[in-house]
Design a protein that fits this description.
single chain, alpha+beta, 34% helix
Length: 622
């Protein structure tokens, strides 16, 4: 039988490093968290080869003397548990194993000077072998250098990715910590260029407006589009407080990588929190898109367990239901207050599509360049060639001429322009979406506002209106139904029929009454009255497909957004339907009075707003 023995201290530290130090970004996270816990207000970081050959972290924190420096590299030595109470952790680090674990697999050097001390000290740990502290030169704070990471465990090196990939992970770690601490300045470089440079938010120092300061930091990391289209979140319940910012539903991404969640200042990736965000946005975006959010949850330390994962990226809540309800309620409240607002990025993208193409020729004829040194006359001949002149004349020619010599445009116009009688000449300033002026391509409404114009997708807009009315009717006791004069038989495969029939009582509450009609068909007898004249067969087939993708254990009430969204899509104004002035303006007024009308049920914008100043810039007027 093998003999029991105690493992050597070096091997113990290497095993611990396998849990704590997964890659260079993991070591960097531990070092930066130590700097934050030390009260640093500026942290400068240098990475080389993605952190494989060098990780250097310098801070202006409280620093350490020679005695504390020697103790800092011992296992489970920490200054962050003064009362040995693991249920009351108020710091980012508390385990006391990061520095010895890093030192066991690298060449670690720590130089520190205690605040108010007259001497700096340096200590070295190479592959777990500790050298005594020695005097060093440092003005204040602490500088940690990690060289040749994993040189003592070369097998780990082959699991590292390319330097650029490892560098990307490190940048993401610093960005998350910087979001939670806008009062701290961060810089990150690779020795030759700066990758990240974030100044400390001045508002926090003066106590002016910490929420505005945090939004400025979020904008510096997530981009101007998030800062311009973020909704403030502020809610409190039973000692739990949620703050932060959430993007408008029209500002969404393909993955959840742009969802940042923090618990007591600690960045976490928690399925409960991510699921709560998805539940809050269920009414507004499709299931394959993800909103941009940065949420900060503060709660009593004894209400959350942060000691469930070596990397401290997961937490466990004492009252998970309260946390989920707080997040869902706060986000829905913020989205409701946004009204019909849509993301400004939609208008920006539209303006980008309008911008003229580069090059001296556009559409077969020359055009001038703004700011060109040569004049139009000298750059292009005043008498073009015969072929170019004919092409230019054909492009400028009208559709036909009247008998009086003037132009008479006999062909059908591309836009449907109503007579000015029933339509307001000037938009009402009390109407944010303006007054309808035309309908183009039988699907888009052009409206004039006080300082620009709005383009509305009539199908997407009416889809949201029908959806919201269905939700209100369902909450009030059920959706009104209308009987079909001739019940419609819809043929489906047997599995789809079984799914629909098993959900018939729930569908009836939504206004759709159907029953089985043999092994491969259902008969539809009533449809929701809100849908008006609708394609009952198409609606039933779409619902059958939706049910096929859903967990059979979920009720339709839990999937209200998907089911009502499918019905609303069938009952909305279809593309290609001609609307008169009264109908167009009525649609605009309903949008202004309906919450969340800035996007349809799939997260697409229902309208695009273009400011007059932007339009004037397109034509060189500004």
């Amino acid at each position: 039988m093998p003999t029991l023995r105690r493992l050597p201290e070096t091997l113990v530290n290497q095993i611990a490093a396998g849990e704590v130090v997964e890659r260079p970004a993991s070591a960097l996270k531990e070092l930066v968290e130590n700097a934050l816990d030390a009260g640093a207000r500026r942290i400068d970081i240098v990475l080389r080869d993605g952190g494989r050959t060098l990780i250097q972290v310098s801070d202006d924190g409280c620093g350490m003397d020679d005695g504390a420096l020697s103790l800092a590299v011992e296992r489970h030595a920490t200054s962050k548990l003064p009362d040995d109470d693991l249920t009351h952790i108020s710091t980012l680090g508390f385990r006391g194993e990061a520095l010895p674990s890093i030192g066991a697999v690298s060449r670690l050097s720590i130089t520190s000077r205690a605040r108010g001390g007259d001497t700096a000290w340096r200590i070295r740990v190479e592959g777990g072998r500790l050298s005594p502290p020695e005097p060093a030169a440092l003005t204040a704070g602490t500088r940690v250098e990690v060289r040749d990471l994993f040189f003592a465990t070369p097998a780990r090196l082959k699991f590292l990715k390319a330097p650029r990939t490892e560098q990307g992970h490190a940048v993401e770690i610093i960005q998350r910590l910087a979001m939670a601490h806008p009062e701290v300045a961060f810089s990150l470089g690779d020795g030759s260029r700066t990758l990240l440079d974030l100044a400390a938010a001045p508002d926090l120092a003066t106590g002016d407006d910490p929420y505005r300061a945090r939004l400025a930091r979020l904008g510096a990391i997530l981009g101007r589009e998030f800062e311009d289209n973020a909704l403030a979140v502020n809610a409190e319940r039973s000692g739990y407080r949620l703050t932060g910012h959430a993007g408008l539903p029209t500002l969404h991404k393909r993955t959840s990588a742009q969802q940042f969640l923090f618990v007591n200042g600690r960045p976490v990736r928690d399925k409960l929190l991510l699921g709560a965000v998805r539940g809050a946005y269920m009414d507004f975006i499709s299931s394959d898109r993800h909103p941009m959010v940065a949420l900060f949850l503060d709660l009593p330390a004894e209400e959350v367990d942060v000691n469930v994962h070596p990397a401290k990226t997961e937490v466990r809540f004492r009252d998970a239901g309260l946390v989920r309800g707080l997040i869902v309620g706060a986000l829905k409240h913020a989205l409701a207050e946004a009204g019909h607002r849509a993301s400004t990025t939609v208008g920006t993208a539209t303006l980008g599509a309008f911008r003229p193409q580069e090059g001296p020729y556009q559409g077969g004829y020359p055009r001038p360049h703004s700011g060109a040194s040569a004049s139009w006359a000298t750059r292009y001949p005043q008498h073009p060639s015969q072929g170019l002149a004919e092409a230019q004349a054909a492009w400028q020619a009208p559709d036909g001429r009247s008998s009086g010599g003037g132009f008479a445009f006999d062909s059908a116009p591309a836009a449907r322009v109503e007579q000015p009688g029933p339509m307001p000449v000037e938009p009402d300033p009390n109407h944010p979406l303006g007054a309808a002026k035309a309908q183009v391509h039988a699907n888009y409404i052009i409206a004039q506002t006080g300082d620009g114009l709005v383009i509305v997708d009539q199908h997407a807009a009416h889809e949201r209106l029908v959806y919201e009315r269905m939700k209100e009717a369902l909450a009030a006791g059920g959706v009104a139904r209308q009987a079909l004069l001739l019940p419609e038989v819809v043929e489906l495969d047997e599995a789809a029929v079984d799914r629909l029939v098993s959900r018939a009582p729930e569908l009836e509450a939504l206004g759709l009454v159907l029953e089985g009609f043999g092994p491969g068909a259902v008969v539809v007898r009533e449809v929701p009255a809100l849908l008006g004249q609708t394609d009952a067969a198409g609606l039933v087939r779409d619902l059958a497909e939706d049910l096929a993708e859903t967990d059979s254990a979920l009720s339709l009430e839990d999937r209200l957004a998907d089911v009502c969204g499918t019905m609303a899509c069938h009952g909305s104004v279809r593309s290609g339907r001609r609307l008169n002035a009264e109908e167009m303006n009525a649609l605009l007024r309903q949008m202004e009075a309906t919450p969340h009308s800035g996007q349809c049920n799939h997260g697409r914008p229902t309208y695009v707003e273009l400011k007059l100043s932007d339009i004037e810039r397109l034509f060189g007027r500004r």
